[in-house]
Every structure is written in C-alpha cells, then in structure tokens.
Amino acid sequence: MFRFNGVVMPARSTKTPVSFGLDRLTTPIGIALLVTDAEGALRALDWDDYEHRMRELLRLHYGSVDLRDRPAPTAMKTALSGYFEGDLGRLSGVPWRIAGTPFQQKVWTALAKIPAGTTMSYGALAARIETPRAIRAVGHANGSNPISVVLPCHRLIGADGSLVKYGGGLERKRWLLRHEGVEI
Predict the structure, then answer these.
(1) In sequence order, what are the residues at sequence separation of 6 or more whose Cβ sits closer than 8 angstroms to the Cβ of residue 159?
(2) Model confidence over 30-46: pLDDT tens digits?
(3) How many CB atoms lie within 10 A of CB 10?
(4) Whether the model pTM is above 0.85
(5) Is 17 helix (H, G, I), strand (E, B) or coil?
(6) CA distance 87 to 43
C-alpha cells in the first residue's frame, strides 16, 4: 500500500514494466507531457515542471513503467492544440484510458462530463456520482487524476467558489478557467 495525496492506494506489482510513449506539447501555460499507450490512448497528461508527480502517479496506477520518447498521435496533438487555441470542444476527441480504484475511475469519468466554461464544487460532484458524503474522497481522487486538462480537474472549485488545489499549480488552473470563459 502507498499513500498519495492522503489516499492509501494499493501497490501495483508487475513483473514486466508497462511501456508507454512520452511526447511533449508546447502550450500557452507550459510544456505538456503526453503519455500514450500502444493503441494511442492518453494515459497521462501533466506538465514538465511536475514530471516527478506524473511519474509517481503512473507508478502507483501501473507499477513499474517504462517511458520511451514516442510521438503521440497527430490527431491527439491537433485536438489539444485546438483546445489551447480556443476550440474548447476539441478535448472530447482525445481518446483516454485510466487505471485506478473503481471510486477514482468513477470520479475521473464524471470529471469528463463537466462542460467547458462551467465549474462544480467537490460536494456537487460527490452528489452527482451518488456519494454525497464522500466530498473529501472526491477531492483526493481529483488530486490523483493522471490526465490533466482532458479530465478537467481544474473545473472543480471550493463550495464558496474559491480556487483550491490544482496539481499543475493554481496559476495554471486560473488560466484554464479564464480560457474557458469562467469569471474568477
């Protein structure tokens, strides 16, 4: 068992390291790291200045991971670039696949359903996934989301409307929300 962001997670043990590709994408808010599997699905998206965090999340979810420089699919990079250029609907075209506990997967899947330009409190998301008393657990799952931006953890805010925690830093969260038209 391991603890990450206050959540106890089962150790993933594999004899052979899981192999993923690693690519980089220049965005207005830094270099995005794109981790993809052999089928071209996004497994992680994080920021180059948070690479250690991303690698730790991958290790917790998959066990031993071998990251090799490999271009992400062109369509994925085009969709992500389109999002950063203002075509907010482009994120829905990015194929992704996640590992994690069933509860984490439920939270992350629900994140993908929060429309661009809107925000939601942790409590509202807990209620949406029919676990209204699991606000803190939703927060912990949100904090260990491996696919930033595409699974839009930046759209979760405090119950009082305040910006709270973002794995890529609050300045990035603020930029992403403003980019999507959210008044902060």
Answers:
(1) 121, 122, 123
(2) 999 999 999 999 999 99
(3) 11
(4) yes
(5) coil
(6) 22
